[in-house]
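User: quick one - fold this with NAI bound?
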Amino acid sequence: MSGRLAGKIAIVTGGASGIGRATCRLFGREGAAVLVTDVNEAGGRAVGEAVTAAGGRAAFLPLDVTREADWTAAIDHVLREHGRLDVLVNNAGRGGLPARVPAEHVVLADWELIMAANATSVLLGTKHAIPAMRRTGGGAIVNVVSIYALVGSRGGASYHASKGAARALTRAAAIQYASEGIRINAVFPGFVETGMTAELHARPGVREERVALTPLGRVAEPEDVAPGILYLASDEASFVTGTELVIDGGMTAR
Ligand code: NAI
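Assistant: Sure. Structure tokens for the protein plus NAI:
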């Protein structure tokens, strides 16, 4: 077995699409055994099969990141099958229209859905991964946050707040578990072409505006983000915890 994640057991949430799918594929190529998880069962299964067809090791498990019982089942599954958990990528998240309205127009039920998918999910994943990682004396958690935890925008009060919570939780947990060899880091993608942004980017002018805001002159593909997640998950980042890896084409450097 070779590769930058050789021998590691990894869970990726939201693995059926976008950044999660690219991460599962890359992890598979780099020697990890990947548990692809998602609420989209058909999509997640297809990603698991693609990883396997490419010579990697993968399986699919349904996991709604907002449901604690699902987390318990997923971690139990990994420990039963592999006896260890080395990497968790908290990638699943929710955007879309209800996530993008300004503060005064936020509907409380939508706020709660967004917070559950983007913030509570990270807490639940961290909570359940830590005891599993402790068994083997370490591990790596990578949270997929967003530049919208760093800067504001015209809409998106709920989305910004949920990603801000994930950012703060990353730093807090990094401090809390560093002494146990468990590293907790985050990537902060800019504008990426995925299922989440497809409808938005199809609207007249939106994609062009985002390209104009990005010094490198394009929006990202999921494959631009996955290598950052790979680095933080791998032993190459063994002295890195609590860090914030921005992958945004220079957008927030302005
Ligand atoms: P995507 O929509 O292509 O993929 C998200 C995946 O998460 C989907 O497969 C979906 O089924 C899954 N998911 C949603 N709710 C879930 C739940 N409760 N439990 C389990 N799975 C669930 O979107 P994308 O862009 O790949 O999103 C991945 C992460 O990247 C998200 O956390 C998102 O907020 C973040 N992000 C995306 C950016 C973009 O421009 N696309 C920019 C910055 C961050």
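One thing worth noting: Helices lie at 18-29, 41-53, 68-82, 108-134, 157-177, 195-201, 206-213, 222-233.
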